[in-house]
Every structure is written in C-alpha cells, then in structure tokens.
Design goal:
The two termini are 61 Å apart. Helix content is 46%, strand content 17%. Strands 1, 2, 3, 4, 5 and 6 form a six-stranded mixed sheet that branches. The protein has a six-stranded mixed sheet with strand order 15-14-19-17-18-16. By secondary structure, it is α+β, with helices and mostly antiparallel strands. It is globular. The structure holds manganese (II) ion (MN). The site of manganese (II) ion has 4 residues, from loops.
Length: 760
C-alpha cells in the first residue's frame, strides 16, 4: 500500500512539510526499518494503522526541528523503533510511539486520535501527554515537589497499562541518546531525573541492558571526566582481558561439548557506570577491581531441561575452578521479583584471580534483557506472571494509600519497590518476599496489619530478637502478640517497608485524633463557665500558644504541655480573646507572631570569600547572598548548580555532589543554573584524603609539594600510620579546580602515595 493513499480525517493537519527531499527519504527509510523490526506478524489492519500513524506524525511534526537541527519527525520514528526492536513490543506500542508527541506538540487533538486510531491507542497517547505536561510544570507554589508528584503519576500509569511506561522509557532513552545539543543545565536536569527515576524503573521492569545504558549516559553527563577515564581504561585493558578470558574458557570447552547441547560462552565487560561506582565507593584503583568482566554461559535447552542443564554446567565450571561458596546465587529456584533468572558463582580462575560466572538459558537471557516485554512473550509458561503481579499489586497498594505526601511516597517507593529482596519464611513454611533491610516488625505488618499493631516480640529461628532486628535470607520468623500492645510513633524509625510505615502513621494519627478529642473536651469544660465560644476563638488561642493548628492545641492540652488550670479567666477584649496567665503558663515561645524572614533577592553579600564569582540563571550574583555548600565545597572550575533552600537561601553545590541526584530529581523546581564568572579569587577550601605506604619522609614530601613547589596554602593536616600504612587528611586553599587537579596529580606521583581522593 502506498503511504500517501491513506485517508486521514484530521482537517487541521498540514499537507506540506518543511523537509528536504533527502530528509523525506531518510525518514521513510527509518520508518520502513522500524516496521521491519516488529517481531510479531502484522495483519493488514495493524499495517494500515502503523502507516496511518506515520503519516499523521509526518504531517503534524513536519515543520518542527529538534535542537540539533534534525527534523523532529525522526524522534517519534526512533521511539517507535526502540519499542519494537529493543523492547520487543508489538504494533500498538509502535503506533503509540509514532504518535506520542502529536497531541502535546501539535494541533492534533485527543479526539482526533481516538476517532482515527481507536480508544486503546488514544488512552496510551493521553497518558503520555499527561506525563510530559507534568514534567514541564515548574510552578513553585504548587506541591512541595512537582517531580515527586510526577513520579507518582508515572507509577500510576504502570498500574493501568504498562505500555505507557515502556513507550515513555523509549522516549527518555532516545532523548538521553541525543542530549548533546541541549544546554548544559538542561542536560544535568534530565540526566539526574533519569538516574533517579528511569534507570531504577528499567531495573525494576527487568530491562538490564537499558538500565545499564541509561546509567552510562547519565554518568557521561554528570561526570564526563570520570566517564571518559573509565571508558578509556576498559578499552586499554581489552586485549589483556580477552586473552585471560580465552585462557579461562579453553579448559571448559571439551566438557561443555560433551554435554551435547547448544551453548554460547563468552566474557563480558561490565558497564562503565557500574565500574565507576565501584571506584567511587571503594576508593580503589581500576586495576584492583576484580569483577570488571563476567563469564556468561547461555544454554539452548527446552524449558523442562533448564534447571538440570544449568546445574550440570555449574558442575563443569567448578570441576575446573574452585568456587567461593558464599558467592553462589541461585536465582533459578527463586527468581528475583523483576523476573531475573540466572545461576551466579564466583570461582578462583588462572593467575589467582576471582572470576564471576553467570549460567542461564536463552529464555532466561531474554528475560534479563527484555524483562517485562519478554514476560509477555512467555506469559503462562511459568511463574513469571505472578512474580510481576505481586510487584504490581504492591505498587498499586502504595499508590492507593491516601495519607502520603509526595516526597514521603517517593522515598518509600524507592526504598521498597526498587530495593533488592530477601526471602523469609512464616512458621508454616510459607515464603515471603521483603525488601533488603526489612526488620522483624516489617514482617509482622507484611503478614497482617493487626499482627503488626499487636506485635510484642519476635522470634527468629526460635530466638527472641528486638523488633528492629534486620531479617536475613532464609530465616523463619514468628510474631508474638499482646492485646495491650499499641503502635508507637517510634516504630516509624524501625520499619522499612511502605506498608508498615503507612499503617503505623495511620494508627498514630488515629490515636492522636482520639487524644486531641480528650484535650478538646477539657478545653471546652474550661471555657464554658467563662461563656467563651470555643469554635469562635480556638484559632486565636492556638496562635497564642504557638501551636501549628487547633488539633495541635488540643493535643498539647492532652499532653499537659499546656496547663489549663494555670490559665486565669480568659477575657474578651475588643472581640479578641485575651488569656491572662501566670508566669508558669507562659507560651512556649514569646515570639509567637514572628514569621520566618524571607531572604530577598537583593540582600547584601555574605558569601564565604566576600567576592562574587557566580552567575545564576545568567544573572550576576555580586550583591546577592549565597553560600557554597559544605557537603561538597565547590571550587571554581567545578561543574555546579544553585539550589534554593526551603528558607530561600541559595546554596551552590557541585554537580557531582552526593546530594545532587536527589536535589535535582526531587526538587528540580528549586534548582537554578549556576556558572563561574571569573577565577581570581582569594581561594577555596578543598579536602583531600591521601593514603599509601608509611615512610619516614612522607610528611616532608607531601608538604614540600604543597607549600614549596605549588605554593598552595595548607589549612590543616592530619595523619595516622599503622603497620606500614598511612592515612592522611589535608585541607588546602586553592584558586580553582585546575590548581586542585595539579596538586592531586603531583601527590599521586609520589612513590609512597597510593590514593589521593577529594572528599565530598
Ligand atoms: Mn518525545
């Protein structure tokens, strides 16, 4: 069928595009390639829908271009291609991918889509439009964190139709792949949002490859130097690594061949970001990481032979190499709840090096790469379905819970549904999944909220443990209840799961409501003889006692924090209530009317060095107060951003600060673009950690370089030695990042120094 013959009844759609003939033919070719990558057989109706969707996208976006100058049309084509080729999704998702930005960016309406493409496609496009319109919103007067609200919306859509999330993820993936043309501060914002939300979501849905790629793309933007460094190192060591992998694999081949099944064995380097994370976390050199690669064995066997084939292969590997027992991970008998199945072991390979070996079947491998999408393909074949269902049910349960504020919700969600899991057993031997770090009290709430409320003590493997005991894999847990037990607010510090947390919050709230009703009754009894109407004056009274609300006032009365007996008769003066109080009954703070001062934009400068070198959103900050955050101590040359705190102060953070991801993702509406204006400054404080071999002369060598050679002002120096090893901390005043980098390089060159790292 000719694309141009398709009849589309959307009158406002332009007939002409601005594309050059060359661009038109590139777009058509990309579209045909996308159609060819759809794995399911297309019937005539599907085929017509896809071509019609392309035609609508072509004419709707025909005059738009991306920041890079490329026709906008290439974006929806590519999003559809990612859905089909990389996620393995079917024709509906391809149609939704082609149309995903049409309603938002052009004059085509939701009704047009429904009329032309039916309700299913229209619903997906509507959800996608809603999601992105939320992203753009940056109103500061609305919810505390619009991003958290947005995140909640994204998760709500998973519960409805998972395809919405998958198309959205394809959209994000393509935007991340083509972020180069964006201005730096936008790149950072998108990257942080991606590593905060989309990468964990990809992991959660079992898309390990996509997760790895998203994390690498994020790192290449947030920490370009570190990314380039690790990538180069991986390349530089490739040849040596390949030789080692061959020497590891060779002895296994005769035995594997003798099994008579088709297999594929190879070594695979881990992702740049996962290696960079290890370097950062463990503060070790690249050469010291033993698991830069893993050996993967993929077996081609029918479903019923999977388990035995995998264990046979395990036996072959461990016949040749000694395994490390505690490193055996059997995710075949108990798959991860994102569907991941595999058998992992770490063995001692040639030359005394630890090597991780991952054994799995073709089907399991597809699950690991395509996660949720592969799950559909194998639906009904095994227990995957219920595994995803469990997770979705948990997600729905959290979403339906009304008493969550968005930030709390986001934290709960991240710590619960994105966390690794442990398995524990009930006294009857029933298996329960809990997030890693869950406590004995969480288990009680997991079984039943009543059991949680009445939980008095917990036994783990027959021993009594505290309620705060952190459960471990395979433990058997039983709960001892008491009818007099009540939930405490302190319990919130003990539990980790969202379910327990929300139940406790609810119970505490109800208890407090009950208590404040007792307080209210007491106040009523007090006011009645004075003929003062409670409802009319309660708010004034609450303000007077510096309470946050009338319920707070009642509660303080219940707690005896406000002693009613000490209130001398209250009087009405000019229609206002005036309580007369003795000295003992003074309100908690005499300054009860003061409101926190808001720092205006033009308050005089108070920054650390007395000099302004920063522009925020392009505006010179010479006379405006800001401080350099002491969690990361930025120095000129560092990549930075500004953050407006809840008290309206401006803090400057490094883009690589440990708090950056959270601030940028959850509080994006408070983040401002910040740049250095010039470099001639009094100096900036930076702290270095230095360690290496303890040598008599090390102190002298260090100070010689710092003070004499580089003429850097040293603020403090501390060092401790232990059995030939030393650890030191040096605080220096440097001019800018360049000087700091030179210092680090020079110190690393010292023979006795092994590690020099800047402390965040
Ligand atoms: Mn898009």
């Amino acid at each position: 069928m000719e694309v141009r013959d398709i009849i589309i009844n959307i009158p406002q759609l332009a007939t002409e595009t601005d594309l050059t003939p060359a661009e038109e033919s590139i777009a058509y070719a990309a579209f045909e390639e996308m159609v060819a990558s759809i794995r399911t057989d297309l019937n005539e109706v599907d085929d017509l829908q896809i071509r019609k969707a392309f035609e609508v996208a072509r004419r709707a976006h025909g005059k738009q271009r991306r920041k890079s100058g490329e026709p906008y049309l290439m974006h929806p084509i590519e999003v559809a291609r990612i859905c089909a080729a990389e996620f393995g999704l079917g024709p509906t998702s391809a149609v939704a991918g082609l149309l995903h930005d049409v309603v938002e960016d052009t004059n085509v309406t939701q009704e047009d889509i429904e009329r032309e493409f039916g309700k299913k496609v229209a619903d997906i496009v509507a959800s996608l439009t809603k999601l992105s319109s939320l992203t753009i919103r940056t109103l500061s007067e609305t919810p505390e964190s619009p991003q958290a609200e947005n995140f909640k919306k994204i998760l709500l859509t998973i519960a409805k139709d998972v395809r919405v999330v998958l198309v959205k993820m394809a959209d994000r993936l393509h935007n991340m792949r083509t972020l180069g043309a964006m201005p730096r501060h936008k790149q950072l914002k998108i990257a942080y949002e991606t590593s905060f939300i989309y990468a964990p979501l990809a992991h959660r849905l079992g898309f390990y490859n996509i997760k790895g790629e998203l994390e690498d793309l994020c790192l290449s933007i947030t920490e370009p130097e570190q990314y380039a460094f690790v990538k180069q190192k991986i390349q530089d060591t490739a040849q040596e690594r390949d030789a080692y992998i061959q020497s590891f694999i060779a002895p296994l081949l005769p035995d594997l061949n003798a099994e008579g099944i088709k297999y594929n064995i190879f070594g695979r380097a881990k992702s740049v970001s996962s290696i960079a994370n290890k370097l950062k976390k463990k503060q070790i050199a690249f050469e010291e990481i033993y698991d830069i690669f893993a050996i993967r064995v993929i077996l081609d066997v029918p479903k019923e032979k999977e388990k035995s084939a995998c264990w046979n292969t395990y036996a072959i590997v461990t016949d040749h190499y000694t395994p490390v027992p505690e490193r055996l991970k059997d995710w075949i008998s108990t798959p991860k709840s994102n569907g991941y199945e595999s058998l992992h072991t770490t063995v001692m390979g040639p030359k005394g090096r630890f090597v991780e070996v991952q054994i799995r079947t073709e089907r399991m491998n597809e699950m690991a790469e395509m996660g949720f999408a592969a799950h559909w393909k194998y639906k009904g074949l095994n227990s995957q379905e219920s595994i995803f269902e469990d997770w979705l049910n948990k997600a729905r349960e959290m979403l339906e819970n009304p008493n969550h504020d968005a930030i709390e919700f986001l934290n709960d969600f991240k710590s619960n549904l994105f966390a690794e899991e442990i398995y524990v057993f009930t006294p009857k031997g029933e298996m329960k999944l809990l997030p890693k770090g869950a406590t004995a009290l969480d288990f009680a709430f997991e079984i039943h909220s009543e059991l949680g409320y009445r939980c008095k003590a917990v036994k783990v493997d027959q021993r009594i443990v505290p309620l705060s005991y952190v459960l471990k894999n395979g433990e058997q847990v039983s709960i001892i209840t008491s009818n007099t037990q009540k939930p405490h607010e302190d319990w919130l510090k003990i539990v980790k799961t969202g379910k327990a947390r929300s139940r406790i919050r609810q119970a505490v709230k109800e208890e407090r409501m009950h208590q404040s009703s007792i307080g209210k009754a007491a106040l009523e009894r007090k006011l009645k003889p004075m003929k003062i109407n409670l409802e009319e004056h309660v708010d004034a009274l609450a303000r007077f006692y510096n309470c946050t609300s009338r319920h707070d006032l009642y509660y303080q009365i219940y707690l005896d924090q406000i002693n009613l007996d000490l209130i001398k008769p209250l009087r009405l003066e000019n229609g206002k209530i005036v309580p007369d109080f003795t000295d003992n009954s003074k309100p908690k703070s005499p300054d009860h009317t003061s409101i926190e001062p808001i720092v205006t934009k033009h308050r005089p400068s108070l920054n650390k060095t007395g000099k302004a070198r920063i522009a925020i959103e392009g505006e010179d900050m010479t006379n405006i107060a800001y401080v350099f955050s002491d969690c990361c101590n930025p120095v000129p040359g560092d990549d930075i951003f500004a953050y407006v705190t809840s008290k309206h102060n401006i803090k400057i953070h490094r883009a690589t600060c440990n708090n950056a991801e959270y601030l940028q993702a959850a509080y994006a509406h408070r983040v401002r673009k910040a740049e250095w204006m010039d470099d001639n400054s009094a100096g900036f404080i930076a702290e270095l950690q230095v360690s290496g071999m303890d040598d008599m002369g090390v102190v002298q060598h260090l100070s010689e370089i710092i003070t004499n050679k580089l003429r850097i002002n040293m603020r403090s120096f501390s060092m401790s030695g232990n059995e030939g090893h030393f650890e030191g901390r040096i605080t220096v005043m440097v001019q800018n990042k360049e000087q700091l980098d030179t210092l680090i390089k020079e110190l690393k060159n010292l023979e006795e120094v092994q590690i020099v790292a800047r402390i965040q």
